[in-house]
Amino acid sequence: MKKRKLISLILLCTIALTGCWDKIEIDERSFVLSLGVDKAPEEAGSPNKYLLTFVNPDTAKAEEGKVLDFVTYDTVAASYNAGVANLLQRFSKVHSYDHTKVLILGEELLKNADLVKDILDAFGRGHQFNSSMLVYMTTGKAADIFKIRPKMRSLLAYYITGIADNEKLVARIGSSTFLEFTKQLADNNGDAVIPDLSPSADGLTTQYLGIMKDYKHTGHLNEIETVAYKWLNGKAKGGVIEISNNTCSYPFTYFTFKRRINLDKVEKGKIYLTYNLETEGSMEEYTIASSLMDEEKLKEFEKKLENIIEMDCKDLIKKMQEEYAVDLLGVREYLYKYHTKLYKSIEKDFEEFFQRDVVINVKADVKIRRIGKSQ
């Protein structure tokens, strides 16, 4: 009797189990690890708008179970889905985007707001895409980035994500997910920053930020401005600030960086804000036979570091207000969240108000917590 009950229970359990009725074998899939989008070459009468580049691991060159090389395929089309359809006419495998890590946009594409809006909409609506994939721009063609072969043998997508992971140690490294990038565009009416990825002597490097205004690329922040942007937006995690004199450079390595915005006053139609920046870290390089145990010496270095942070940030604020005329400093977000009534009164003319009637002060507070081993 017990055996019959047990058998009946097992049979009932098997009924509840689901089967894989539409499976696709792994060797029938083509995994797209990276995507590149450029503006298509203009040809008379051609409807094509995009040059799409797909990067897949080259499984034919697998070594000891590892795939270290990749192959690229490209097509031109009027839309993303039309491009995929064109590509599948040459492919015997189903495209899979479960492991797509990187999306790279060419500079010429980013100069056309309509093309930018359309292609970002395609990636945003497409259920197959992961919103955590990294987004970069390049000053040349995205397709050219995929010609790079890093000295450290690796699939290019994982090489790029590895560089992005170092952002927690080096503030000038750029990193932005597709979700973060598109959210910034939506929150700022088409204004955003996008990390730049450029070829270097031994691979790729990222140390600049592109400026997007009204969904168009309008300029670049240099290395110093990129770091200041991260300080002012509370995005810096770690990095190095150098104090230089005529002969030597003394680096300060920070591990945390906090930003807090305060509304000081509203006076005569102007809004006065203060960005309070706090950081702490270590100075583990100095001059041999000299000591950093002197408290006055450390305070002197802290003051110099505060001056560097404040000056770099003020220079960027001036550039944002006067040259780019775009708020990428979090002013709109801060006022909307914490002073809604005030924001509503200037919302319609916010861009002009930001240029003319927002006064931003920067106050830095630096603490040197460690000085390395004593000699």
From TrEMBL:
Membrane disposition: Lipid-anchor
Subcellular location: Membrane
Domain Spore germination protein N-terminal: 22-197
Keyword Kinase appears in the UniProt entry: no
Domain of life: Bacteria
Pfam entry (one): Spore_GerAC_N
Coiled-coil region: none
Segments forming domain Spore germination GerAC-like C-terminal: 210-372
Family stated for the protein in its record: Belongs to the GerABKC lipoprotein family.
Protein's recorded name: Ger(X)C family spore germination protein
Species, as recorded: Lutispora saccharofermentans
